[in-house]
Amino acid sequence: MRPVSSLLLAFAAGAASVLAYAPFGLFPLVFVALAVLAALLARAGRARRGFLLGFVWGLGAFLAGVSWLYVALNRYGGMPAPLAGLAILLFCAYLALFPGLAGALFARLHPETIFARAGLFAALWVLGEWLRGFVFTGFPWLAVGYSQTPPSPLAGFLPLVGVYGVGGLVALVAGLLAFAPWRRLAQAWPGAVALLVLAVAGVALGRVAWTAPVGEPLRVALLQTNIEQGLKWQPGRLADWLDTNLRLVTENPAQLVVLPETTLPLLAEQLPEGYLEHLEARMNAVGGDLVLGVFTRNGQGHIHNAALSAGRSPRQGYAKRHLVPFGEYSPPLFGWFYVLADIPMSDQTRGPARQAPLALGDQRVAVNICYEDLFGAELLHALPEATLLLNLSNLAWYGDSLAQPQHLQIARVRALETGRPMLRSTNTGMTAVIRPDGSVQAVLPAFEQGALRTEVRGYQGMTPYAHWGDWPAVLAAAAVLLLLFPRLRRRPAPSAGR
């Protein structure tokens, strides 16, 4: 295959991999997309060529999968269209560096056996995605393990090894598909057996109940305000938004009522006198608790994206601790970015690293705000005390795009990893209740104002992932590299006549 043709094929395979995620749900497609990359890398010959193949594959995946960020920069951030497009291209190119690095290392080394090649490909993929998840605060969106929610048989591995571990299994399967000599069945059968074992083991693990319900069913009302992002920060509309939130709380009494992230677009100290007390009185009247998103200011004058509770339980709060670069704070040397984009409340401060779950009645509710639920290991500090996970989000920034269903799928993975229900209250979607097995119990239609009223149970117990986090997957990948190292040799450079 010509060099340009192989690059185009890698780009197309990366872009096609997005169809494996929500809302499309074609989860087997990611195995094929990664197998195409693995097969191309096996013939790359040089590290430079391997880097280009991995980079182009990643560029296709991220341009197809997260280009909805353009909506936030251009439509709501006010950045001119050419600059917003360039910013997204550069950001996707940065994300593509990680599969590019994995591709370069794979092409440079040359295991002799099929299983060694597949193991090397999987180990490098795990380490690449793990690094992408924390370098420069991390952006693990579209880690391939997120595509394997039920009905994928690999979903059963999520409570054991988390999203990166499952991503490694996906890469292992892709490697076996790419490297096995399927035309010679006598040599291909070990790979076929390995694939069958993984599928059967995943199905069996999916039937294991790692956690158990505790306490009585809890009546919840998850509110979806559906306030258009372009109108939210207009001072003349503030009274309307205050009335909307108060009306939704009043019309939907429950033991736990939740309003979404920054549902009140101002500091708590700027609320009209008696407003919060009025909400609290409504909740006390029905014997329930309210959790709402609002900005707060601490004693040092720093602003937090926060959640506050009000009702029968003592007032408590949570301050977002994993902030969005360029949206909620400016990284060093990037102050010029805010000359081009107009983003309200973009000078926030992260909350403390360890914050106790909210004690609301008999439940212990671990709050996370917006994209904090991308970072599964960071949610584990609340366990085993937390019985429920609660996400408050505002994805109105991204319009009617893939962001909403992709984020819901990420929340499904977090429920599986922790063995806890995940409750989601969002501004425009997708407001939902997710069971500990990753299935969606109920969800509201996007871009409609309403309330999701249902019952949930708190859960107790610890999954293996809740005990150990991402370290088993990362250490296993590192161990594979160490075990293979004596067998690895540099791939000979192709001769000039080839």
From TrEMBL:
InterPro entries: Apolipo_AcylTrfase (IPR004563), C-N_Hydrolase (IPR003010), C-N_Hydrolase_sf (IPR036526), LNT_N (IPR045378). GO terms for molecular function: N-acyltransferase activity. It is a multi-pass membrane protein. Residues 223-458 form the CN hydrolase domain. It comes from the Bacteria. Coiled coil: none annotated. It is found in: Cell membrane. Keywords: Acyltransferase, Cell membrane, Lipoprotein, Membrane, Transferase, Transmembrane, Transmembrane helix. PANTHER family: APOLIPOPROTEIN N-ACYLTRANSFERASE (PTHR38686:SF1). Catalyzes the phospholipid dependent N-acylation of the N-terminal cysteine of apolipoprotein, the last step in lipoprotein maturation. This is Apolipoprotein N-acyltransferase. The lineage of its organism: Bacteria, Pseudomonadati, Pseudomonadota, Betaproteobacteria, Rhodocyclales. The gene is lnt.
